[in-house]
User: What shape does this take?
Amino acid sequence: MLRAGIVGLPNVGKSTLFNALTAQSSALAANYPFATIEPNVGVVAVPDERLEPLARLVKTEKIVPATVEFLDIAGLVRGASKGEGLGNQFLANIRETDTVVQVVRCFEDENIVHVEGKVDPLRDIETIQIELALADLATVERRREKAQKNLKGGDKVARQELEVLDKIWPALEAGRSARTVALTADEHAVARNFFLLTTKPTIYAANVDESVLADVDNNPMVQAVREVAEKEAAECVVICAQLEADLVALPPEERIDYLKSLNVATSGVDQLIKSAYHLLGLMSFLTAGEKEVRAWTIPQGTRAQTAAGTIHSDIERGFIRAEIVGYDELMASGSYAAAREKGLLRLEGKDYIMHEGDVVHFRFNV
Assistant: This one.
């Protein structure tokens, strides 16, 4: 399961956002640093508008969406890489995630203290980046020492590692993320073995006040965060964490109506969940029958036999063929039988590359 870590300075809205994401209030949202010590964990459904119509089509009430696991990690502060504010523990929590959601405060509120005394999105982003980069720099320096020793013994892997480490090291020393360094595909494969914090794909969540949601394009704080994200080839999602947390108490239809009253098309939380799901190049294929409709998570480019193993290893091992129809084609046809009559239901072999929204029935024999 994809694990996304919610990070940022204290009092920027991390725990409030976590509560909204998980549709509950288990995370302690308090007006002082380190209200969160151990990371709260919540499993969140990936919004998928296809599942309910598909369930009606096959006449089942059970729906199982794809999921993302979110960790609400306590606030980092300046000096975290040296252990300030329980920094070592927090950095270790980040290391366990697949992707990072950095919450950036883009609102003024005199009732909510800022750890630096003043709201400044660029300074806050820089603080987090520097602390993560310093932590990675220590890791890289240790790996370089080890690679240099192994190189003397003629270790070819050590030579490859040293070449990549020497590319990454200057960026980290300058306080920049390792993900900003241009690497080849082979070098990326080597770098993954270093488990660096700043190589993790990142989403910047610009946390704004409800009053500016309808006109975020003209908000200078949001623009500043977007520019940072663009330079890093990261993603940026604008949210109002407090609004999203308040919406949890409303029925789904009332949430939509309230967002419309604010001239907001969609929930920022929904956008964030989808961004986290797709950031790592993941996609969903669907299965649909009388027992359930389910979305299954696989990396883009996955072959049919490997995808079958996502359901059960026996299905992968005994794979015969995959019966596949596109979601849109199935819904337009009105039934599996109609889709088959129209020639839309295809038989694919083990090397077929799965596509987003494929509705699949695997044939197998063990």
About this structure: The first helix runs from residue 14 to 21. The chain is about 40% helix and 20% strand.
